[in-house]
Structure formats: structure tokens, C-alpha cells
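Section 3.1: Structural characterization of target chains.
Under the original work plan, the team committed to producing a structural model for every single-chain target entering the pipeline before any wet-lab resources were allocated. The record below documents one such target. The sequence was received from the expression subgroup and is listed exactly as submitted; it comprises 438 residues.
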Amino acid sequence: MKLIKMILLGLALSFSTNAVFSQKLQITVNYADAKIYALAGNTILNPAIGTGSVEIKLDKNDANRIVIIKEGFEPLVQEYSKSQKWPKEIRVNLENRMVEITAEPFDADIYVNGTNVGREKYNLILTKGKSQTIEVKKAGYATIKKVYYNQDGQEDPPFKDHLILESRLVEVSVTPADADIFINEKLVSKSSEDVIIHPNECVTVRVEKEGYTSEEQVFCNSKKDQEPPVSYSFSLSDRVVKVNTTPETAEIKMNGKIVGSGSYEVKVPNNECAEVIVFKDGFISRKLNYCNSKEYQAPPVTDHIELVEDEAYKTSVSTDMANVNVTIEVNKSISEVEAWKLLSSIVMSEFDVLEVTDKETGYIRTAWQVQSFNNESTIRTRVIVKLGDSDPLKYVLKIASERADKVVSVKDDQDFEEWNRILKRYQYIMEEAQARLK
């Protein structure tokens, strides 16, 4: 009924006149099963006042409006003002057909004679003697096109029609433009092709050109498979560099992800560069850039990367104490003054410069101590002491250990990252503090 109310707002009123005046009117519809309802404004009053025909008594204080409803037809509103003269018997003809169109997916666009009329649903009105063309479109789907008629000699339109886009469509383009496109092993064209995939089917698309590495893609149209893309571009201009490493256990990273160990085929898209990082614990990492454009030397077919041992690893130890706050509870026999002196002595045995020292708050922060290795990396270390609690007395120690994979200033914070190792000269600071304060 909500749908009917909306339609009523846009309908024009129909009127009939005759020289004979009557207080009562007998209204007959050309379809015996058409329902007749009284209207209060644009509100349909239930129940129906008649089916096929009805007798109404005109009310001088009312607009005497009715609506005639039959499935498959445009609702027809009639108004019989008492100020006009009406024949005793009035025949009303339902002529305009109405098809309730629904489309799926619900975000598909509905077109009537080439004009976009909305999405999901549309009430198609077919005036007597006319036809209308419906199209349902959505990117990535094969378009549905259907013609509905309200003409003699043509099949009557349905009351409702649910149009479902099921066949998928992938717009395939290729580079170079003269590459061959094969669909299910059959040569179909060059340059571009609209690939249609029917429900529960798969289509294999392969692109080939002499002198290039061919590419192949399978597009499927079923619930269990990945949804096919709206468009897909094949490019045969990509270069490949086969990278292998020494040691063979070195890992290879691209775009922040580890992609291989010992060897990997690096794809370099046309007019782009690819950054490759080769690394292994105990060795200096190598960063390489391969570019595939006229501005740079062509990338090699193969590239052997040999890593150099990292001196920083030889002079450091792996530990779970690096960059971690460690709480030390002070033995009750040691006073706060004595504990402070012990901590200060332990810290200053390895660190000459203190950035901050505050006995009242129990806080010490050393300056960074920096050391470079292999002219390839920089390690910086500092110790931070904080009062954790007074009762019982606790201190929190942290050995901050950070690494930069190049020689930089201690102030270049952006180049440093936390390192899960500690230089050997600092490895006993935490152990000594724990042993002497407990």
C-alpha cells in the first residue's frame, strides 16, 4: 500500500461530465476483479468499498475521491465533486499497464529508453499502445536489455519482473597494443576484449607477444571463487631479475615483506623501480634498486649479492633485556641513599655523560654513546633509571639499544630503530644492578 500511496501523489485526476445530475453514482470498472477504495486526501481507506463496481453517494463536504487498483495496472484516481453533474452510471477503464521492476544486485542502475531512473526498483508505466525498453547495468556485469509492450498483438507485460545480472564482464586491455589475446585457448583479438563469464563458469585469458613473457589470468563466476574484476590490464613490459645471495640463507625483502631466501625473481614493472633488501643476522644488509625505464641502465638478468659480516654482531650479544623496563626491588637492608649511590656508580662505570640526574625523584638518563661499524652501521646506547616505588623501594632500569643501517649522527633519530642486541661492554650493567641491590 505504501507504493500505491507514493504513486497517487503523482497521478493526474480524471473527470467525467454529463448533463444528468444524481446524488448516487454507479461506477463500473472494465475489470471485474479491480478493487475500489475510498480516499481521504491521499490516504487509502480500508477495506475496499467495492470490486469491479460500486455505488457511491456524493457528499457535499467531501471531495468524493476513489482509487481503482488492479495488479499489473497503473492505479487510477477518480474524483466526483458534488458541485458538478454526473451521469448515474459511469464506466472507468484501466488501460495503462504497470510492471514492478526490481533489479539485482541492488546497486545496479535501471535505465528506461536510455534514461537512468534509479536503482533497486522502479514502477514501469506502459501507456496504451506504447512500449518501453528497460536496461539493467552495473560495471563488471553483462547488461540485461528487455522490451515491454502495451500494444495489441503483443504479449501482455508481467505484473512483476525481477531482473538479475548474473553474467560477469571483464574489460581486458593489453600492453603492447598488438599483443594477442586468447580466451580458452582461442585467439580472439588484439589490444582489448570484453570477456563474458557466465554463471558457474571460468574463463582463461592469456596474452602473448614474441619477445615478452606471456601472462595468464583465470576469471571465474561462482560463489566459491574470487569475484572477477571490472577491468584487467595485461602488461608484457615487466622485467625480471633473478637475485641469488651469499650466504644462501640470507632473506630477501620487497615492499616491507619477506619474499624469499637465497634466491628470488624480482619483477620490475615498466617505467618503475623495485627496491630489494637482502639481510641476515650477523651481516651488513644490502639495499638495491632495479629500474626499468629509459632513464636508467637496464636491470641485469641475474644479480649475485654477497653480504659482508657485521662487526657490530661480533661485539654484541642477543638479549631480552634490550629496550625493556626491568624492575629491581632493593634489599630492605640497603637504604635509599645507599641504593642511589650504587646505581649511580654502576651507570657511570660505563657512561661518562649524564643528561639528567635527579636524586630527589630517583631519575637518571645518560647521554647516548655511539659507535660505528664497517662504515655501514651505527649503534647508540643509553641507560635510564627511574624510581619505581618507595615502599618497598624499587627502581626501574632500561638499557636502550638502537641501530641505524648507515653511518649517521647520534641526533638523526629518524634513522634509528630498536635493536634486540646490546654491545658486550654494556651487557653486565643490568646483572650487576640486580646482584648488588637485591
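Residues 21 and 85 are 5 Å apart (CA to CA).
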